[in-house]
Amino acid sequence: MNLKRKRADRDGVFAGNTPERAIIDIGSNTVRLVIYGGSMRAPTVLVNEKVTAKLGRDIAENGTLADEAVALAMRGLERFALLLDDLEIEDVETVATAAVREASNGPKFVERLELLGFKPRILSGEEEACLSASGVMSAFPGASGSVADLGGGSLELVSIKADILGDPVSLPLGALRLPDYREENSKTPDSDMCKRLEKVVRKSGWELSSEEGFTPEPLYLVGGTWRAMAVFAMQMRGHPLSDPHGFEMSLEEAEQLAELLTAETQESLKGRRRISSMRAEKLPDAAILLQALLAQLSPSGVVFSSWGLREGLLYDRLPDHGKTQDPLLAGVSVFATQRGAPPTLATRIAAWTVNAVPARKHGSERLRLAATMLALASMHIEPNIRLPQAIDWAMHKRWIAVDGAERAMLAASIAANGNALDLPSDVQSLASEEALEEAICWGLAVRLARRLGARSARSLRVSRLLVENGHLVLRLATSHAALFGVPTEKDMKLLAGRLGLEWSVDIVSDEELIAGTAQ
C-alpha cells in the first residue's frame, strides 16, 4: 500500500494525537501493549490492551511457561504485531520480566517473539525495580521514600531520594506466588503467612535506612493489584475522586485497610465496581503482603502510583531537559491545545491576570497556569454539558503531580470561568474554603480576560489589570476604550466583589500604557 495512503488512513484515529511509540510489557500475569502519544513527559495513552496469559503460573511448580499460557500470549502478541505495523509505529520497546527470565523454556519463547519482529529485553529483577522507581520519580518529582512494585512473579523494592536510587532487590513474592506462603492447616493462617513474608523481606537485607535519626518516609505502591486495593479503599471511604493514582494513606489507615481486606474473599470482592475478577482473587493475599511490608519497613504511610515500569522506560529515555519539565503542565498543555487553548494563549492570559490574582497561600503559579489552560479549553464544550464535563476533567482525569486539594482548585477555577460559583459538594470536600476562593478569583479573572477582547492577542497588549491602592483597575488604551462594554463591566464588578475591592476603569494613551507611567 502507498505510504501516503497508509498515513491518510490513520489520520484522526486518535483525535489529534499521533502515536509515537509503544511498549510491550510481558509480565508473569499479563501481556500488555501500550501505545503512547502526546508529550512523553506526561504521555497520552492511545491504546492499552492486555491478555491475561498467566505465563508465570507454573514457574514455582516446574520452572516452565505452561503451553496453554504461551499459546494465549502468542495469540495476543501476533495481534499486537499487526496493530503496530498498520499504525506504522517503529519505536517499539519489548520487555519481559520474572516469568520469562526464570523459565527453562524462556529462551524458546524469546525466539518466537523475535520471529514476530520484536526485540525483547529480558529485565533482571534489579532492572525492573529501578525502572519502576524511575516511573515513580517521573510521576512524583522530588519523591523520597521507597517503591514496592508487585507483579505476578516478583516483588521489587528500591529506595529513592532526590532522584537517586538505592540498592534494589527482587523477591519471589509476586501475586501468583503468594498462595504458596499459606499453610491451610494453621490455626492462624493469615498471621503465620504474614510472619513468613516478613522473614523473606528481612532475609533479603533490604531496608529503608539504617541512619540514626531517620525520619519515616512514604512507601510508593506500584502494580495493578495495589491499585485495585486503592480503589477498594476509596470506595469504602466514599472518596470524591476516582483515580487511584496519588491516593495517600497514613500508616495507621494502611494497616486498617490491610486488615479489612484479609477478611474479604474473592466472591465478596468480585461484585465491586472497578475490581476485576483477576484482582479480586489476589487482593486478600496482597493485603497480607502489605501487612508484612508495613511491619518490616515502618513507612510514614503509603502512596499508590499508577506509573511504574512502563513509564520508567519512557522517562529514562528523555534528555535531561525533558525530565525537568513539569508533568502537570506537559500533560495539560497537550490536552488543552487539542481543545482550542494552546499554551501561548494561556500564558498570555495568565500573565495579564497575575497582578490581580496571583497564586497566594494555597496555590502555585504552575497550578494557576494549568487552571487557565483548562478553563479556556472548557469554552469549546457545548454550553449544556460544559460545567459537569469540565469539572470532571479537573477531578477525574489522570493529571500527574497534583493532589486532591489542587484538583479541587482546578475545578473551582474552571467553574468560575463559566460564572458558576456554587461549587459541587465533592469539590468543596477536598479543599478549604479559602483555597477554593483563591481559585474562584483565578477563574473570574480568566473570564474577564477572554471576554474583554474575544481572546485576541491585541486586546491583551492594549490593556492592563492591576490592583492599586485597594482598587481593582482595568487600564485601557484610548484606541480600545470601546472594549469596556456591558459584559466587561459585569465581569469587573464580579471579580472586584470576590476580592473585596472597589474597581475602576482608566483610559490612557497608548504611550502611557506601554510606558506604565499612567496613574
Helix content: 40-55%
Which class do the helix and strand fractions yield?
alpha/beta
Major sheet: 7 strands, mixed
How big a fraction of the residues is strand?
15-25%
DSSP helical segment count = 23
Shape: elongated
Mean pLDDT: 92
E-strand count: 15
Radius of gyration: 27 Å
What separation lies between the terminal Cα atoms? 68 Å
The stretches of 5 or more residues where confidence is low (pLDDT under 50) are 1-6
Task: Give short descriptive properties of this protein.
single chain; 519 residues; alpha/beta; 23 helices; 49% helix; disordered N terminus
What can you tell me about this protein's structure?
This protein is α/β, with parallel strands linked by helices and 519 residues long. The chain is 49% helix and 15% strand. The strands form three sheets. Strands 6, 7, 8, 9, 10, 11 and 12 form a seven-stranded mixed β-sheet that branches. The protein has a five-stranded mixed β-sheet with strand order 3-2-1-4-5. Strands 13-14-15 form a three-stranded mixed β-sheet. It is elongated. The relative contact order is 0.08.
